[in-house]
Amino acid sequence: MELDKMDENDWKYHGEGNKNLVVSHLQHFRVLRFLKYSTEDSENAPQTSEQTYRHIVDFGKNIMSPLLGDRFVHSGEVIKLPLEFVRQLSIKVQHKRPQWRCKKAMDIYSGCALCLPNLTLPPYNLPTHTPPLCIEIKPKCGFLPSARHVSRDIKTKICRFCTHQRYKVANGKWKRSSLYCPLDLFSGNKQRMYSAIKHLIEEPQNNCKIFKGGQCIYEGNKGSEDFQDLNSLLQDLRPYFLPGTPMLNGHLANKAVLNDLIQVLVEALLNNGGEEQGMRLERGGDGEEGQGFCEASLLTTELKRNSCPGLPRDCVLSRILHTQMLDSLDIEGLQPLYRRLEKHLKLYPGDRSCLQLDGPYDAAFLDRTQKCPAEDDGSIDYAVAKVHQYRVALTAKDCSVMVVLVPRGEDEGLSGQMKARDLLCSSRSSAPRFSFSVSIVDLDPKPFDSIPRQLILDHQIVSFYIENQ
Ligand SMILES: Nc1ncnc2c1ncn2[C@@H]1O[C@H](COP(=O)(O)OP(=O)(O)O)[C@@H](O)[C@H]1O
Ligand SMILES: [Mg+2]
Ligand SMILES: [Zn+2]
Fold first, then answer.
1. CA 104 from chain center: how many Å?
2. Strands 11-16, 20-25: pairing kind
3. Do the strands 400-407 and 425-426 form a parallel or antiparallel pair, or are they unpaired?
4. Cβ neighbour number for residue 16 with a 10 Å cutoff
5. Final residue of a domain: which of 84, 118, 152?
6. Residues 208 and 83 grouped into a single domain
7. Range of 383's domain?
């Protein structure tokens, strides 16, 4: 990519979240990721600096990658673009953006962006005849907090996602409630995972997207009107899952496609890169943790209770779950430590930087995060370590998993050093099978100053749930 010859016509709108807008290259398997800022404070807008982008890359590379595994994490690089290119690009993509996302605008002032591989496509520009599929899942928090730290019993029974759903639907964020429960997805039990993924696809909201040939073809209906409904999606996916079965009628065929898609996804999410299968990570073990299931999930209690094989060590979900579990105190248990730190900073404002509360995100930050004393010794170091852990966990609760599926036989064009097995894992079972590659995106640091807001939100969600039980 020649930075001085950038042309906005080589790029197209790809997608966005609350904080970033992504464009993809028409030919190369690359994306550019731009920060967004709120248009309400557009007067003092261009605060986004190169430093913010560098922090994002450092956090991904030095903190999240060691915790989640470098085979899943691509931290990318900061690039400096011609301002005119960025301005033209922002005009070009504007009409593709969903209306409800337009309260924020793309950063056009810093001239920076993150350049990343396009993770909705297979690695190394792998040529394929059939467009590859990619399923993006935002799994959210997969465990319940320990009863020791929370003031409301309900938090140890019903997971954050399920309580938050009720709040969001009541506040009009979504029309219908999702029946997805993260505790089922993270259970490692195939039946429970199947059910979780089915609910995700049926009511995707913000938590599930499907791409074909790098293009988003399915997402929550709050997005643009262009997206298809579930039935036309399944029809579209039919050649991937039911090649050569024209006799099956529409409804049955769609059911079979959905079933197969979910099976392949379960397999990809449980894959641990060829290590001995069957090594299962037990949850907790010290008896302090909450139960491994959520009472809001519609599965029978029996299935939930008696089905805890846990996740295979080193599969993507296990890595994410264990990073999420660095939040061992819950926001309520963290609160006094945050206060301790705040008091300290009032006396010694200079410590904000040497305690690395806003970075830099380097080896020392990871060290502080990982070498936390087991017990609270009343020190600032303990408080800092817990706050760091909480923020890292928050990032892991908000990331997305991208599963790219390439129909088998399509991955054979590789030779030499690029052995297919290094790039793509193959599914084990019979039937129409796929090679897949799994990665994790959206690993930005969460600001230290957002902690008080987290506490307020937690209180609102939980109180609302209790009042509306
Ligand atoms: N490296 C990537 N390759 C392909 N698509 C990506 C990549 N990074 C992000 N995306 C897509 O762009 C969307 C928004 O990016 P994300 O990093 O999640 O932004 P936010 O921080 O605002 O949530 C994601 O949901 C995903 O669909
Ligand atoms: Mg996101
Ligand atoms: Zn739940």
1. 21
2. antiparallel
3. unpaired
4. 22
5. 118
6. no
7. 120-469
Q: Is the CB of 145 under 6 A from ligand 1?
A: no
Residue 88 alpha carbon to ligand 2 centre in Å: 24
Same domain, 173 and 187: yes
Q: Prior bond to 360 cis, omega within 30? A: yes
pLDDT in tens, 225-278: 556 789 999 999 998 987 766 667 788 889 999 999 999 999 999 998 765 554
CATH number where 99 lies: 3.30.200.110
Is 80 exceeded by the pLDDT of residue 419?
no
Q: Does ligand 1 have an atom closer than 6 angstroms to the CB of 18?
A: yes
Contact by Cβ (8 Å): 202, 230: yes
Q: Which of 118, 146, 169 is the last residue of a domain?
A: 118
Count other Cβ atoms within 10 Å, centred on residue 50.
Answer: 12
Q: How many domains does the chain have?
A: 2
Q: What is the mean pLDDT of the chain?
A: 88
Residue-wise over 300-334: b if at least 16 C-beta within 10 A, else e? eeebbeebbebbbbbbbbbbbbbbbbbbbbbbbbb
Instruction: Tell me: do 39 and 185 sit in the same domain.
Output: no
Question: Of the candidates 364, 359, 381, which has an alpha carbon nearest to the alpha carbon of residue 372?
Answer: 381
Same domain flag for 70 and 10: yes
Ligand 1 binding pocket mutation candidate from 14, 57, 224 (most atoms within 8 A of CB):
14
Among residues of the chain, what percentage have pLDDT more than 70? 85
CA–chain centroid gap for 440, Å, is 6
Query: pTM of the prediction?
Result: 0.93
Provide CB contacts within 8 A for 440, sequence distance 6+: 64, 68, 72, 73, 316, 320, 399, 400, 401, 402
**DSSP 8-state code for residue 276:** -
Q: Given a cut of 80, is residue 308 above it in pLDDT?
A: no
Same domain assignment for residues 148 and 103: no
Decide: 17 in ligand 1 pocket, CB within 6 A. yes
Task: Identify whether residues 58 and 142 lie together within a single domain.
Answer: no
Confidence of residue 136 (pLDDT cuts 50, 70, 90): very high
> Tens digits of per-residue pLDDT, 70-85?
999 999 999 999 999 9
Could you report the per-residue pLDDT of 6-20, keeping only the tens digit for each? 999 999 999 999 999
What does the alpha-carbon distance between residue 92 and residue 463 come to, in Å, rounded to a whole number? 44
409 vs 137, residue with greater confidence: 137
How close are the terminal C-alpha atoms of the chain, in Å?
A: 55
Residues 367, 400 within the same domain: yes
Is there an atom of ligand 1 within 6 Å of 400 CB? yes
* 337 and 188 both lie in a single domain: yes
